[in-house]
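Quick one:
INPUT:
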């Protein structure tokens, strides 16, 4: 862009080593911004036993609760890190969550006259089941009110899909919104045959793959029912799940109840840089969640040429052109399993979708994403300067 180097503060309740779409997106953006010569500092929650390799990461004290295992929650006092924030004289603050740490970032930026850009990553109203003892209807109401307040208080909103942009509009967010999908990371050069040998995968096995948290909001019931139907129609098919979460035991029980326990593998939590090996190993990616704003794992799978079969809803299917680079189905296990079986049975159809998935995944990179984010930063910075000039006395 030919832009001067910026000093950027990122605020997020979720960041590495927590592994989810928010933390992966932040990590990719920070890497590209620094590669482009910008200085980025991250403010996030402490993670027990984790030692940061990045000296520009500042961590607030945090605890885990029985309802947020793996997701530390920051708690006050926050002011000990305020001196680091002020000393750096940031050009822009970028928040990635509207909660505790995102709110700290907003308030600190306002106190210093720094423009605030915020990315809306998550449909938070879909996660009310994690908060016990409080009526869900009341929680959804409070989340809607907070969403309206927070995103109308920032200078610009980024969101990864048109579906999530429309959701913000329905909640009367009037701040400018720009849709910027998370860019695709470069594909690793991996040897599929060697990987399948290492993982003891039979030559004729066809791996149906899910990558993500094992959680209630991911629509795991439909996913397992579809897998069971597909496995019943194709003896070569097996179902692998990469990831962990609070719904793991329920998922294991579903596998047993459906009679597919012998052909299901719970891989468990895998380090971010090792997940790519499972995309290379697999044959079809299946995803039933309707709570995503984007569905980053679908794009990752596509970059490895995996045909993806995805349930329509939210932003998960935003990267898919139905029947061209993937398949979109309704929220129905039979529709999902039929789409999987059609790919397994028709090599020509499979090959065409695989080729197009790989091609389309290369059209939008993390560098493209970063250039679009820098354009938004520039708009926010100039907007704040313009408002400051307009409010000065003549």
């Amino acid at each position: 862009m030919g832009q001067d180097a910026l000093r950027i503060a990122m605020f997020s309740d979720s960041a590495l080593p927590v592994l989810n779409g928010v933390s992966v997106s932040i990590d990719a953006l920070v890497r590209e911004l620094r590669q482009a010569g910008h200085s980025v500092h991250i403010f996030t929650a402490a993670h027990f036993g984790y030692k940061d390799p990045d000296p520009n990461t500042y961590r607030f004290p945090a605890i885990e609760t029985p309802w947020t295992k793996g997701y530390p929650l920051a708690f006050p006092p926050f002011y000990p890190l305020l001196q680091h924030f002020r000393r750096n004289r940031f050009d822009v603050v970028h928040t990635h969550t509207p909660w505790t740490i995102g709110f700290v970032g907003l308030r600190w930026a306002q106190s210093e006259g720094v423009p605030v850009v915020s990315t809306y990553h998550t449909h938070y109203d879909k996660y009310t089941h994690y908060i016990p003892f409080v009526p869900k209807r009341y929680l959804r109401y409070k989340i809607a009110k907070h969403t309206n307040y927070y995103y109308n208080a920032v200078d610009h909103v980024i969101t990864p899909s048109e579906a999530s942009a429309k959701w913000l509009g329905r909640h009367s967010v009037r701040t400018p919104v720009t849709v910027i999908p998370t860019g695709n990371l470069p594909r690793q050069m991996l040897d599929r045959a060697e990987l399948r040998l290492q993982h003891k995968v039979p030559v004729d096995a066809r791996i149906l793959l899910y990558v993500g948290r094992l959680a209630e909001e991911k629509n795991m019931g439909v996913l397992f029912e579809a897998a069971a139907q597909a496995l019943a129609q194709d003896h070569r098919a097996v179902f692998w799940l990469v990831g962990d979460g609070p719904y793991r035991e329920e998922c294991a029980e579903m596998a047993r109840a459906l009679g597919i326990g012998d052909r299901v593998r719970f891989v468990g939590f895998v380090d971010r840089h090792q997940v790519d090996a499972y995309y290379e190993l697999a044959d079809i990616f299946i995803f039933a969640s309707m709570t995503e704003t984007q569905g980053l794992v679908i794009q990752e799978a596509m970059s490895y040429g995996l045909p993806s079969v995805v349930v329509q809803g939210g932003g998960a299917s935003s990267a898919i052109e139905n029947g061209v680079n993937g398949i979109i189905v309704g929220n129905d296990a039979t529709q999902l399993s039929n789409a999987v079986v059609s790919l397994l049975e028709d090599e020509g159809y499979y090959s065409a979708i695989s080729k197009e998935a790989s091609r389309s995944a290369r059209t939008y990179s993390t560098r493209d994403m970063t250039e679009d984010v820098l354009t938004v930063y520039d708009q926010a910075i100039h907007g704040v300067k313009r408002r400051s000039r307009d409010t000065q006395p003549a």
